[in-house]
Design brief:
- The protein is an alpha/beta fold and 680 residues long.
- The protein has a domain of 32 residues.
- It is built from ten helices and 37 strands.
- Strand 8, helix 3 and strand 9 form a beta-alpha-beta unit.
- The longest helix has 33 residues.
- The structure holds 2-acetamido-2-deoxy-beta-D-glucopyranose (12 copies).
- The site of one 2-acetamido-2-deoxy-beta-D-glucopyranose has 3 residues, from loops.
Length: 680
């Protein structure tokens, strides 16, 4: 009885599951399905057809990742079914009467199938679904004609996904019946032309055209659209209809990763808030339109609509003021373009501008006063430009009362022109890395304040990597509560004592490649991340063990080992440690085993770490092959231990052999010695 106990319990369990799963009939097909309330989940079950006999009240049925090829007529006998999902099957055909008994179906997911094969019959099945609101046909190898046929009569459709198909061009026939469509995903097709395709979809709000081959978007007049994503195409021109009086509802326009040469010609009146234009070849050109020297230079370009000769568009190329309504813009992303300047009044036209991302452009100067940034500016990234100076007056600095994140790294600024920025009242994070700050800190003027970093009390993060800093003035950080301080790549930096005043607040400290000597981290109780790479350190500073570090960068130093005690303490706290580029001693790698066996620690570049033994350099991982002093001695001991008995037995054997083979010689010698006549 006790032996059979568990299996009988299992049997009871199976039986009760069986009864749950088979309330009416006893077809075994659907035993893989999970039923919860009105949802039936039969995903990943190798099914080749829709299971029969599921509860008649099923409202949602999921059959994703199965092997179904055809939906047979009448295979769905569930009058309450509103949602059916058959993604990732091998569906080729939906027979015309598939949905005869499921007229309430609202949502149908047919993604990742082969509907291109029998799309005509499938379209007849879809036509019987007048209530269908959501349809996913993504990744089905459909071209534009197949799609147009499949979408006939779906007059209630609100959401349609056609991404990952083979659509090349769209026209007025493509979505003719989809009068209720709100959300259309056309990502990752082969679209190169769109011609009046959205005339019959007056409610469309979200349109995704990303990753296609569109060369331009001209004549844009979809006033109802809220989100347009046309990123990752080959768009050279974006031009909206200028003669439309209505307010465009557009809030988000993504034209990033295209080939735009000009700032887009936006609608005259719009609600545009998020404008993404990164990674184009945008610039402003008005400074080139020198109409005194070249009075006859043509400054307009005309776009002809070849199809109907209507709506020809004329754009004033050089007129920088013709960029439409940008008055609601909050996020402007212009990263990776070729802007040399902002046209006059351009920034001033965006009173709500909160985030301006200008990383990697060609700005040479920035006059915060003349640009007239507003007090909503929160993040300003002008890193990786050619800025030599930043100009601002007291009034401007006070106006920028919300400016919190400022990135000026990778420019040609010196500290005089950046110092004034520390007067910004809300500044939290400043990145001045890779500028020429050192110039204002001559080595001789030891002791003088000479620097304004500590004038902004709100400052928490200060990045001063690679600034040619020779030293830090003693009181540079006094009064500040920095959590991040990055001073790496300032070789020969002196004055680390000044960091002591930040010991209670710092979370991250970067001192890589500064050639720091002895360091004392005794009171840095909040430090979580420390970078002391590239510093020729021969020993780990003793005070490191007392820290609660999560990340430690020790790359490219002169460490030969890490004492066991320190290794144990570090291993219990660290999450990430960088140790490559140290001349470790293979014969003192106990610390490595400690780190290796501690599951919570990630040793970055573990396979590249090397150590040297008596003869050569090894990967520290293959510990078996090391030849070490101690181990050498040990092995000699064992060799001797082994060797001695072998020798003794060999000698014994040889003696015995000798004795048996040449007994006469012995006898003779014995005789010689002992059998000589005695004189008695
Ligand atoms: C489908 O739409 C066409 C016109 O677009 C119409 O002639 C036809 O009757 C409709 N069929 C159904 C089943 O509604
Ligand atoms: C459309 O389908 C694709 C692929 O199946 C998916 O990645 C994408 O998120 C879907 N789009 C929407 C808006 O749900
Ligand atoms: C536009 O689509 C691309 C590709 O799907 C996506 O990465 C990007 O985040 C989208 N843009 C916006 C603003 O949602
Ligand atoms: C826009 O308004 C102007 C004047 O109010 C009018 O002449 C013009 O026809 C309108 N345009 C459209 C496209 O409605
Ligand atoms: C839109 O702006 C352009 C240029 O400023 C102007 O010529 C045109 O009349 C405006 N259209 C409307 C409808 O206001
Ligand atoms: C030259 O350009 C200026 C400003 O862009 C304009 O005011 C002036 O009328 C132009 N002159 C000619 C001859 O086009
Ligand atoms: C500009 O055009 C006018 C009239 O077409 C002509 O007389 C003049 O010589 C031209 N100027 C230049 C610099 O080509
Ligand atoms: C558009 O340009 C073509 C070619 O010059 C011309 O024949 C046609 O009349 C123009 N249409 C309009 C509406 O201006
Ligand atoms: C910066 O702009 C202000 C206001 O337009 C102007 O007075 C000042 O001369 C400009 N400074 C520089 C260096 O261009
Ligand atoms: C400052 O900027 C943040 C982030 O954009 C925003 O939430 C906040 O309302 C702004 N404050 C003011 C006073 O503009
Ligand atoms: C500042 O910009 C540079 C270059 O774009 C980037 O690498 C760095 O991470 C940014 N700094 C901060 C603090 O975000
Ligand atoms: C530590 O600083 C060095 C020198 O600047 C840098 O190369 C390295 O990437 C930094 N380590 C980490 C983990 O960021």
């Amino acid at each position: 009885m006790s032996v059979h106990g568990p299996s009988s319990i299992l049997f009871c369990l199976l039986l009760s599951m069986w009864t749950i799963l088979t309330p009416t009939s006893s077809h075994p097909q659907h035993s893989q399905c999970k039923l919860t309330q009105r949802t039936t989940l039969c995903n990943n079950s190798n099914l080749t057809s829709i299971p029969v006999g599921l509860p008649g009240t099923t409202e949602e049925l999921q059959l994703n990742h199965n092997l179904i090829k055809t939906l047979q007529d009448n295979s769905l006998q569930y009058p309450s079914l509103t949602s059916l999902s058959l993604a990732c099957n091998q569906l080729e055909k939906l027979q015309s009467n598939t949905f005869q008994h499921s007229e309430l179906l609202k949502s149908l997911n047919l993604a990742n199938n082969n509907l291109n094969i029998s799309y005509l019959e499938t379209s007849n099945a879809l036509k019987t679904l007048p209530k269908l609101k959501s349809l996913d046909l993504s990744v089905n190898k459909l071209d534009e004609e197949m799609a147009a046929v499949l979408l006939q009569n779906l007059t209630a459709l609100e959401y349609l996904n056609l991404s990952g198909n083979l659509l090349r061009r769209l026209d007025e026939t493509s979505f003719r019946d989809l009068h209720q469509l709100k959300d259309l995903d056309l990502q990752r097709n082969l679209l190169f032309e769109i011609d009046n395709a959205f005339d019959s979809t007056p409610r469309l709000q979200r349109l995704n055209l990303a990753f296609n081959y569109l060369p331009c978007l001209t004549d844009f007049d979809m006033t109802q659209l809220v989100v347009l994503n046309a990123s990752h195409n080959f768009i050279e021109w974006f031009i909206s209809r200028q003669d439309v009086n209505d307010t465009f509802q557009i809030e988000t326009l993504d034209l990033s990763d295209n080939k735009l040469l000009f700032f887009p010609f936006l609608p005259n009146v719009s609600r545009l808030r998020n404008l993404y234009l990164s990674h184009n070849i945008l610039s402003f050109y008005e400074h080139l339109a020198d109409n005194v020297t070249f009075p006859n230079l043509t400054a307009t370009v005309k776009f002809y609509n070849l199809r109907k000769n209507t709506n020809n568009i004329t754009a004033q190329l050089w007129d920088d003021s013709l960029h439409g309504d940008i008055s609601s813009v909050e996020i402007l992303d212009l990263r990776g373009n070729q802007l040399q300047y902002f046209p006059q009044g351009f920034i001033h036209k965006m009173p709500s501008l909160s985030r301006l991302r200008m990383c990697t452009n060609c700005l040479e100067s920035l006059n915060l006063t003349s640009e007239q940034f507003s007090d909503s500016l929160y993040e300003l990234d002008v890193s990786n430009n050619r800025l030599k100076e930043i100009v601002a007056n007291d009034v401007t600095l006070r106006t920028l009362s919300n400016l919190t994140y400022l990135n000026l790294s990778l420019n040609d600024l010196d500290c005089l022109s950046s110092e004034l920025l520390f007067a910004l009242p809300s500044l939290r994070s400043v990145d001045l890395s890779y500028n020429n700050m050192g110039i204002c800190l001559p080595e001789e003027v030891e002791g003088s304040a000479g620097i304004a970093w500590n004038t902004t009390v709100s400052l928490r993060q200060l990045y001063l990597k690679g600034c040619h800093l020779p030293r830090i003035p003693p009181f540079a950080f006094s009064g500040l509560s920095l959590t991040h301080l990055e001073l790496s790549d300032n070789p020969g930096l002196r004055g680390q004592q000044s960091i002591k005043s930040l010991s209670t607040t710092l979370h991250h400290l970067g001192l890589g490649n500064t050639h720091v000597g002895e360091l004392d981290f005794t009171n840095f109780q909040n430090l979580k991340s420390l970078n002391i790479s590239c510093n020729s350190l021969a020993h780990l500073p003793a005070s490191i063990s007392g820290l609660d570090l999560k990340q430690l960068d020790l790359r490219d130093n002169e460490l030969s080992t890490i004492p066991s005690l320190q290794a144990n303490t570090l291993a219990s706290k660290l999450h990430t440690v960088f140790l490559t580029g140290n001349p470790f001693n293979c014969c003192q790698t106990e610390w490595f085993r400690t780190f290796e066996t501690t599951k919570t620690i990630h040793m970055v570049g573990q396979s590249e770490m090397e150590c040297t033994d008596l003869f050569q350099t090894h990967s520290i991982w293959h510990s078996q092959s090391f030849l070490c002093h101690e181990e050498y001695g040990e092995s000699i001991f064992w060799y001797i231990l082994l060797f001695v008995p072998v020798c003794i037995s060999l000698v014994g054997i040889l003696t015995i052999l000798f004795l048996t083979l040449k007994p006469k010689v012995i006898q003779k010698s014995i005789k010689k010695k002992y059998l000589t006549p005695t004189s008695y």
